[in-house]
Known about the structure:
The complex is a heterodimer of chains A (112) and B (116). Chain A has strands at 4-7, 10-14, 19-25, 32-38, 45-51, 56-59, 62-67, 72-77, 86-93, 100-102, 106-111. Chain A is mainly beta. Chain B has 116 residues and is an all-beta fold. Chain B has no helices and 11 strands. In chain B, the strands form 2 sheets. In chain B, strands 2, 4, 5, 6, 9, 10 and 11 form a 7-stranded mixed sheet that branches. Chain B has a 4-stranded antiparallel sheet with strand order 1-3-8-7, with no helix packed on it. Classes of the chains: A mainly beta (112), B mainly beta (116). The A-B interface holds A 31-32, 34, 36, 42-46, 49, 51, 89, 91, 93-105 and B 4, 31, 33, 35, 42-45, 48, 50, 55-56, 58, 90, 94, 96, 100, 102, 104-110.
Amino acid sequence: GENVEQHPSTLxxxxxxxxVIKCTYSDSASxxxxxxxxxxxxxxxxxIDIRSNVGxxxxxxxAVTLNKTAKHFSLHITETQPEDSAVYFCAASGxxxxxxxxxxxxxxxxxx
Amino acid sequence: KAGxxxxxxxxxxxxxxxxxxxxxxISGHRSVSWYQQTPGQGLQFLFEYFSETQRxxxxxxxxxxxxxxxxxxxxxxxxTLELGxxxxxxxxxxxxxxxxxxxxxxxxxxxxLTVL
Lengths: 112, 116
């Protein structure tokens, strides 16, 4: 079935350090991979996404890489700041229309 | 443009009751998806509607149903509530400019349902 594994479940870093979150998906038909940030009590918000015809995408301090062969994709945050503290979810497109299969989330804590 | 809105924001029900949740998508968005978020199971896809038609359905029992109106607003209904239905119910809308091509899903604030 469709499944997305996400690691680590929690990640603590010092301000200025880099953070990496990794996901693995099971369905080779998946072609869209968004990352969402959810702050406590708030709605998930898209921070970056990548499609299967691209290997890497960057937006300022955030980058995502995709390895289709290995079915891996990763989120990289550089120069972390306390306001980056939140839960981050990876997702992969599922079978059918507009269905996202989410990972279990990574709680990122950035200490000043 | 106004964002995705959901009503009510909070709901307390007892076992056996039924509940209806509402979602208004961003103007112009015709696709509305629903997700259930719980600490144990994370975010799980319930169903998706486009132009009043259910195009996709997740692995939830038949007690969970939904519909979409001609103005793209969507409702989901849960009948015979169980304790395990306590969760944050999120809807998301997307533009889907090109048929079948995934586009960004914008989430609403959610409805927090508590079943006692």
